[in-house]
């Protein structure tokens, strides 16, 4: 890459990478107009409109849009939860999940709907809410 010196084996990978630098987003969602750098990004995004959740947890059956979300969720079925809330003692498998939980105690709701003013603790809840507008 002439911009950052990163190397790629395939020219197609370099082409996709260059979009990070030039801001090109050729894949547009027909539903809402949001644009993406890759076809896979658009495919993932479309699931937010359809409600499709193709990645299912083998333990509880809960569905997820991304495999990374499923992998994070799988940890909820584990015994060990090393990140403890100092306020209530509830344990979490990652520090990120603990930080989201702490918002319950602080009242922080950083995801605000510009259409109706309702606010949410989690971005996933906000994204579900946006479908009603």
Search tags:
2 domains, globular, two-stranded antiparallel sheet, 133 residues, single chain, zinc-finger, zinc, two-stranded antiparallel ribbon, alpha+beta
As residue ranges, the low-confidence spans are: none
- CATH hierarchy, class of the largest domain: Alpha Beta
Which strand order does the major sheet show?
1-2
Shape: globular
State the helix count: 5
Descriptive account of the structure:
This protein is α+β, with helices and mostly antiparallel strands. The protein has two domains: 1-50, 2-Layer Sandwich (Double Stranded RNA Binding Domain), CATH 3.30.160.60; 79-130, Double Stranded RNA Binding Domain (2-Layer Sandwich), CATH 3.30.160. The chain is built from five helices and eight strands. The protein has helices spanning 11-22, 39-50, 67-74, 95-106, 123-130, and strands at 27-28, 35-36, 55-56, 63-64, 83-84, 91-92, 111-112, 119-120. Strands 1-2 form a two-stranded antiparallel ribbon. A two-stranded antiparallel sheet has the order 3-4. A hairpin with a 6-residue loop joins β7 and β8. The radius of gyration is 19 Å and the shape is globular. The termini are far apart. The model has no long low-confidence stretch (mean pLDDT 90). Keywords: Metal-binding, Nucleus, Repeat, Zinc, Zinc-finger.
């Amino acid at each position: 890459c002439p911009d950052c010196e990163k190397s790629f084996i395939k020219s197609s990978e370099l082409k996709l990478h260059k979009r990070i630098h030039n801001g090109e987003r050729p894949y547009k969602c027909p539903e809402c107009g949001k644009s993406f750098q890759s076809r896979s990004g658009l495919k993932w995004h479309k699931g937010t409109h359809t409600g499709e959740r193709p990645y299912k947890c083998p333990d509880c059956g809960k569905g997820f849009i991304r495999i990374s979300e499923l992998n994070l969720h799988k940890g909820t079925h584990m015994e060990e939860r090393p990140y403890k809330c100092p306020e209530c003692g509830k344990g979490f498998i990652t520090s990120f999940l603990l930080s989201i939980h702490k918002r319950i105690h602080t009242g922080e709701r950083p995801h605000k709907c510009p259409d109706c003013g309702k606010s949410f603790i989690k971005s996933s809840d906000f994204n579900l809410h946006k479908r009603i507008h």
